[in-house]
Amino acid sequence: MIKQCWQYKHLVRFALFALCLTSQQSTFAEPLKYNITGSYSWYPYFIGNQAEDPGIITELIPMILDMAEIKAEILTLSPKRTNHALETGLLDFDIVSPSWFEKQDLGPLFVKSAPIMQITEYVVTLPENASKYNEISQIKGKEIGTVRGYLYHDDQDFIRADFTSEQELIKALDKHRVDAIIAGNYPALYWSTQLRIPVVLAAVHSDGELVIRLRKEHANLLPALNQAIAQLKANGKVEQIIQKYTQSLAS
């Protein structure tokens, strides 16, 4: 009787352990939620309504996740809502550059992956105003065009004039609504060409690398993500996709 009782307790403990393990595996298997849209004019990183050529990041992130064997689900949110969703846990990761943050600090809730690719932002202006923005210090105290919801490491130094996208920033320059904007080199040059509005890339505003900003509770996934990124770089796939979208744009 004592032995049977011990066996019963042993089976109960084993069943509880198996249930706990199954629950942990189920939680782990839940897809990570993310958003990559930025603004809808974030060419060439995200290109809306383009199934065949959706943009650099739109192509690379599924490749990284697939190679890392991580399931994920895309939620479409505005930049402002994306930041809030990450802080509250509605989203599990996004794509950012530490250079966009003050002191390159992503905050206590997040960890970052290995770098995926280089990204540079400039103070962009019309040719006749180029001499006003040769140095980054020249934006201090001035009204500068920015994208609503975007992160800027030094936006306490200038007055933000928020617009909905990089496309609208270039239009704002042409209409003299602002003298200068902050934009990535590729988006600025692309929309300059599309809209036939000549612009100049003046002072560098930020220079860094895009990474996956991952909520800290998923930090155990970093080794797999970093290995996938390293492999896609080593086999030339990252550079191939970058060239696909940027070879026609002068840097």
Automatic annotation (TrEMBL):
Q: Where is the Solute-binding protein family 3/N-terminal domain?
A: 41-247
- Signal sequence span is 1-29
Q: Does the keyword rRNA processing apply?
A: no
UniProt KW keywords? Signal
InterPro entries from the entry? Answer: Solute-binding_3/MltF_N
The reply on keyword Signal is yes
Domain of life, per UniProt, equals Bacteria
Q: Which family does it belong to?
A: Belongs to the bacterial solute-binding protein 3 family.
User: What is the name listed in the Swiss-Prot or TrEMBL entry for this protein?
Assistant: Transporter substrate-binding domain-containing protein
Protein species of origin = Shewanella cutis
